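Final report, closing paragraph on structural work. Over the funding period we assembled a curated collection of sequence-structure pairs, and we close with a single example.
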Amino acid sequence: MAISQILPADAYQALKDGSGTIYLDVRTEDEFSAGHPEGAFNVPVLFPDPQGGPPRFNSEFVDLVKALFPAETTILCGCQSGGRSQRAAEMLSEVGFTQVMNVQGGFGGAQHPMTGEVVVSGWESEGLPISTEVDGAGSYRVLRCQGGMDESSP
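Its predicted structure, as stored:
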């Protein structure tokens, strides 16, 4: 199934309309703490390897999102530029989420792979509301507890 795409400015409008749409930030906890869309929920899809190897998949990702949100929730998946969030949106769609979209350009903007030129502006460069709150209701730690995940590290 093809995943619908939405630009950051349109995502912001969708979040403001009061329809229960959520922004699911699938970046790492460190990326989230450096700045994220105001009101976002953080469930990382990947974790960095502390030894500098390739990142590892968050095996709780799908189960946690399913525990937190009904399948009919409109979920706007965002990451740094749109790649991880595209895959996250595909995974959620595969398990029955029916209203999932990928935020093109994510938080930091998408760049052309050859030239580095920004081809899609991100949330930050669009001047949309940003938060650095990491201990609130949208933090991964709090969401894991709400979703019934144990307190041990993932």
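The domain at 4-146 is CATH 3.40.250.10 (Oxidized Rhodanese; domain 1). The chain has a mean pLDDT of 93. We thank the funder for supporting this effort.
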